[in-house]
Amino acid sequence: MVAAAAIEEGKPAAAWGAVLSMALCVAMLIASEFMPVSLLTPMAEGLRATEGQTGQAISISGLFAVTASLLITTVAGTLNRKWVMVAMTAVMLLSLVLVAAAPNFMVLMIGRALLGICIGGFWALATAVIMRLVAESDVPRALALMYGGQAIAAAFAAPIGSYLGGLFGWREVFWALTPIVAINLAWHVAALPSLPANRKQNFRAMFDLLKRPYFQRGLAACMLSWGSAFTMFTYLRPFLERVTGADVTTLSVLLLMLGCAGFIGTWAAGRFIKGNVAPFLKLPALVMGGATVGLLLLGSSVVAASLFMAIWGAMNTMFSVIWMTWISQNADDVPEAAGSLMVAAIQASILVGAMLGGFLLDGISIQATFIGSIVLALLAIALIGNGQRLLKPE
C-alpha cells in the first residue's frame, strides 16, 4: 500500500539510492566548505597572501550561500529539480578545480564564491527533494541518512585534510576531492528520478510563509538555537587551549571525538524522531546549552571536557534533522520557500553568533563568550516551550 501510494504521488517507493547520493553530496559540501580551516597557513603562503586575507576569502562562501538560498527557487523557476541538483554538484566540482589550480588570490575568491552558491542552492532545496524521494513516514529517517554525510565530513575532513596537506601540499588535497565529486555527479544523474517543479516559485511564497505566526516563532527559535551553538563552537579551540590546557595532540583528539559523536546523533535522529516533532524542538538548545554550561563549570578537566564535547557533537547532527523535519511537517505546502528561508536564517545566525562570540572574547573573556551562548540557548528554550506554538494549526 505504501509503495502504491508513493507511486501515485509521484514519489518513488524505494529511492534510497538517491538519498545516499544526496548524503555523499552533503559530505563533499561540508568537506569542501571547512577543509580550508585546517589548511589556512599553507594556502596563504602558496598564494602569497596573509592568513587574514585568506580567511576572508574562505568566509565569502557564507555570503554567497545566504544569497543563493534566497534566490534559488525563483531563479530555478519551473526547471526540473533533478537537473538543478545536478547543476549544483557540477558547480561544486568547478569550484574545487578553481581552488586547487588557483594561481592567485582572486581566483581563489571566485572558487569559494561558486562553492557558496552551491551550498545555498543545495540546502535550500534538499529537504523538499527528500520529501519527494520517500514516503512521508520515512522523511525523518531519510533526512537522518542524508545528514550522516555531515557527520562523516565533520569527523574526518579537517584531520585528514591537515595530514594529507602536510604530506603532499594543500592543492593536492583539493584535487583529491574532485574525482569523488565527479562520481557523485554521475550518481545524481543515474539515481535521482525526474522531479518536475510543482509550481513556479517566487518571493511571494516566502513572504506569505513569513506572515504565518507559528512559522515566525519557529524561525526565530531556530535562529536563537543556531546562534547559541556557533557563539560557543566558533571559539571552542581557544577555550580548550586556555581553560582545559589542551596541547595540539589533545586538541586534535577532542575535536575528532566531537565529530565522531555525530554518528550517534545521526543514528538517534533516524530512530527516535518520528510523528509529532514538537517535543524535540527544544532539545538542541537544551542539550547543547547544557553541555556549554558543563564546559564552563568543569572544562578545566580533560575528561569532563571530552564528555561534554561528545554530548554537544551528538546533538549537533540531530539539530538539523529536527528542524528540517519541522519544515517537512509544518510547511509541506511550500517546502522550497521554507527551505530557502531556513538556510538563509541558519547562515545568518551562524554569522551573527560568531560575531557576538568574538566581541565577547576580545572585549571580556572566553568565559563571557560561553555565557553569551548559554543566554541565547535560554531564550530559545523559553520561546519554544513545549513546541506546540510552533506547529501549524490543524
UniProtKB/TrEMBL annotation:
Domain Major facilitator superfamily (MFS) profile: start-end pairs: 1-389
Predominant location: membrane
GO MF: transmembrane transporter activity
Cellular location(s): Cell membrane
PROSITE patterns: MFS
Lineage: Bacteria, Pseudomonadati, Pseudomonadota, Alphaproteobacteria, Hyphomicrobiales
Membrane topology: Multi-pass membrane protein
PANTHER family found in the cross-reference section: PURINE EFFLUX PUMP PBUE, PURINE RIBONUCLEOSIDE EFFLUX PUMP NEPI
The protein's name in its UniProt record: Transcriptional regulator
Pfam families noted in UniProt: MFS_1
Membrane-spanning segments: 12-35, 55-76, 83-107, 113-135, 142-161, 173-193, 214-236, 248-268, 280-298, 304-326, 338-360, 366-385
UniProtKB keywords: Cell membrane, Membrane, Transmembrane, Transmembrane helix
GO cellular component, one term: plasma membrane
